[in-house]
Amino acid sequence: MTAEPLEALAEAARAWGAPLDEQALERVKQYLKDVAAKNATTNLTADDSWDDLVLKHAADGVFAASVLRRAFAGKTPRVADLGSGGGFIGICLKIAWPEAEVTMIEAVERKYRFLNSAATALGMKGLRPLLRREGAGAPPNSYAGGFDAVVERALAPLPEAIGLAFPLLGPEGIFAAFQSDEPRPSEPELARALAAAGARVLESHVYRRPGEARERRLVIFGRGED
Length: 226
Prior knowledge:
Order of helices and strands: HHHEHEHEEHEHEE
Radius of gyration: 17 Å
Largest sheet: 7 strands, mixed
Strand content: 15-25%
Number of helices: 7
Oligomer: single chain
Distance between the termini: 48 Å
Helix content: 40-55%
Number of strands: 7
Low-confidence stretches: none
CATH architecture: 3-Layer(aba) Sandwich
């Protein structure tokens, strides 16, 4: 384990407008060390090298924080990380943006147990896991719905993810989806999903992970018609 990946993450975070101070970097390091230790006995991720954990997984969460923080400037939003898995997006978003309230929604109990342990270890107020499979009926309580933002990465194909995310949003809520390529709203399956949710593409944020040449996107969806 070396410091260089964390230094590269810190440099990228500054460029994205989500700088990580020493405490935040230490929290990222602590959390990812917990992931690596747990991954030895419980499959949280196939990308188990330290470089991948920092420059792929943590970086995506920090980038999401930079985008959503600008969208909710001056506010304390409620954000859901849908299909949280090992918590890479939700936990790293929270570390980069401590003011946000983050709920990590996960359907797999062993992953939920890890999320609960990781959140407890970090000790950050407003970071909570929720064991729930979306599409299984109405949210059980106010903590499981009415979010200002829902973010997902690799949850499901985009049309399906839209159908799972929008019922969790409040009236003015937005959905942020990580995508490798620019979505085409005219594509029939996506067009049907957007119409069913009453949704549209608001904007697409292009970025590169540290050390990568490939462009990636965080696409923001909201309610309303073009």
